[in-house]
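Researcher: First entry.
Model:
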Amino acid sequence: MIGTIVHQLTRNMTEEQIKKSGYGAYFIDHTAGVYPTAASGSPWNAASMAVKGDVIADLVEDMAAEQKARVTYDNILRLCDDPDVADVIRYLREREVVHFQRFGEGLRLATERMDQKNVYVINPSFDN
């Protein structure tokens, strides 16, 4: 969705708008194509998806990802002056909050079914 917003906002930019907006370096490398990067310019890669294969570690990682996305959307809303873009970002932010809550519920359910005596919450079927 973010890529679509970026495409819609940049697809018809004039040369003058590209130069004035600070979009020049991006345009040189990618024209108006959507190339997923962080705001710092670091390209997205699969290394940002941390999967351990442990239900607790993975659910906590999922929760962290949702929270980080929510903060990113909060920061975009602080800087955004386009009401149409802000509406979409608010929707995406709301979705991150719901996802965080659902992962939290999953984490609670998973820990309830594990060895409650353990401080580190292990799966007793693997770690006796």
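Researcher: Second entry.
Model:
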Amino acid sequence: MILTINTSGTGLDFVLDNKTKHVDTEKQSLSLPLETEKFLSENNTKWSDLTAIGVVVGPGSFTGIRLGIAYAKGLGMGLNIPVIPITAFELYLFSTPDAFVAIDSGKGDFFVAANGLEPCTMTIDDVETKQMQWARTVGHKPFDIANATAIVKQKLENGDIQPAVPLYLRPSYAEQNSKCTMN
């Protein structure tokens, strides 16, 4: 069985094969371990039943992404199973492969990607121009987390097991504001 965890947005999302659950919480760090165990229990699943863990690596909440990856990696190491990274872009494009994905970053620009366009940030003006190259635009509604299981299975079958690292499309505040001088 494959467990997927998403902490990239508000609350927590879980997928266990074809079962999904969203948990509203303000404290992801406190709720994640308890809610994961509760979700497994509700689905009559033991930790030893898991064969892989998927984790959404972004784009999204800087802290949430790091939390989800660290937790998934800890579980993967403890259970000796692979941890498979999934991007929000992969989740959108799974059901709409001909789409241009534009996710509002909340900072005055958009995280974008599409088949043939590597993930990056764009201004609204750039989005309005660039999106015309694809049949449709998605990203204004949440992605379907239920697609995570199929994506993880596909990656496992293809041997596409990459390290789970955050997908950051812009530097952190610390990097933006660093004033390092060397004398």
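Model: Note on the second entry: The radius of gyration is 17 Å.
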